[in-house]
Amino acid sequence: MSQAMGEREPAMRQVDPTTTERGDRPAASGTARIVAQRLERLYATRKSEVKALGPLDLEVRDGEFLCVVGPSGCGKSTFLRLVGGLVRPTAGEIDVIHDDPARHLVSIVFQDHSIFPWQTVEQNVRTGLDIATNLTKVEKKTRVDELLDLMGLAAFARSYPASLSGGMRQRVSIARALAVDPEILLMDEPFGSLDAQLRTILQEELIQLWEQDRRTVIFVTHALDEAIFLGDRVVIMSARPGVLRSEVEVPFPRPRSHDLRGTSEFAELVQRTWDVLRDEVVAELEEARAVGRSADGARR
Ligand code: ADP
Ligand code: MG
Question: Cα of 152 to ligand 1 centre, how many Å?
């Protein structure tokens, strides 16, 4: 998938899988990487134009768990929408390079509202499969059952989302996104509305799951400890329009477990990353204040 300004045809670039570095990852994993070059997105409203993102240069490696942090409104969700093909770039390019055209490319998990309240847990998980694949009924059932089992949802297969806790609902969202076995998983603050304890547990479940297949993931979050616990790398975006401000390679070995959070190395890295992000959050607050002042001025 390639999208650029103007009406250029989307180009599917092929990469020779034999030349792609897979490291020690299991053979079942895909080979999908993402390259953003001078990527920009503007939103035009009737009154004005908002430059939400860019120019952004960023490469997400094959099989990488990349976390993205940045002040609110800096274009993180916009970046995911661009990767997922939900919006087009205003300038620059975003390429998703992968080697298996038969495989489902991208699934997205949002913070809320990504499951259908009128469908049971089982139906929700099956919905993606119905749309995106040509599996037989029996194959679908097997796949759904496997996922429900994996995500600890088997006992709730016939429940409706309203009867589940927030954590269980997010598990359903993740199971639904994984049902089509996408090469790339995009997660937009998926645990943002959960309380701290539940969030910790879902982080641990997610990372165990990911360590088994190591598909390419972009995970957007506000929480630095979450980013560092999960990610191979954390990129920090500037205040709007978001550009790459800094990046941190996370050195902690895998598999990662709960114990990592208690180490001094972990605390130091969270602190060091916060020192960078702090400047951007302050810049975002100052801009919001300035906008408030000029709005006050205009009212007077
Ligand atoms: P983030 O996810 O980092 O909080 P977003 O990507 O949602 O940021 O938004 C970036 C900026 O673009 C914000 O100022 C937001 O108000 C604006 N924006 C996002 N979507 C739209 C839209 N559809 N129309 C107009 N402005 C938008
Ligand atoms: Mg967002």
Answer: 34
